[in-house]
Amino acid sequence: AAAISLIIASHKIQMKTDETTFPSKIDWWVWLVLIGTPVIHLPLGILVMIRGFHLFGFGLIFWGLIIALVIATFSFPCRYTLSGSTLTIRSGIITDSFSLARISAIKPIQCLNPAPALSRDRLELTLNDGTRRLISPVRQEEFIQKIESRRTD
Prior knowledge:
Blueprint: H1 2-17, E1 19-23, H2 28-50, H3 54-75, E2 78-83, E3 86-91, E4 94-99, E5 103-110, E6 121-127, E7 132-135, H4 140-152
Antiparallel strand pairs: 1-2, 2-3, 3-4, 5-6, 6-7
Helix pairs in contact: 2-3
């Protein structure tokens, strides 16, 4: 029994060291939009309240908080984890996992299409069934190399 638990513990340690996570690259203007949009509501709301429009000012502050909550829920963290022969894409509460063997092509592109990516500098992953995933990992060359080396293993 001790030998079996040692093998299981060893396997868990090996699986953890086999995992590599790449956060999303974040463009400066994305920070500006994601942070600036909800933050601008606070001073505007206070200014409007000072001018006597209390309900409207409260509404601005309230909607600023709602926008911040939605952005945080669906955007952070944005990261890509290689674990064994699986890629997991995470953007906030949304997670997508698939086998690296399903990737038929990888090419760098620049676009603003909706995707779990916080930069225009993206990688387009084409899967065997023709679907595409757009991601924007930091250190894209290293990310591609790690995918290729895991696909050949």
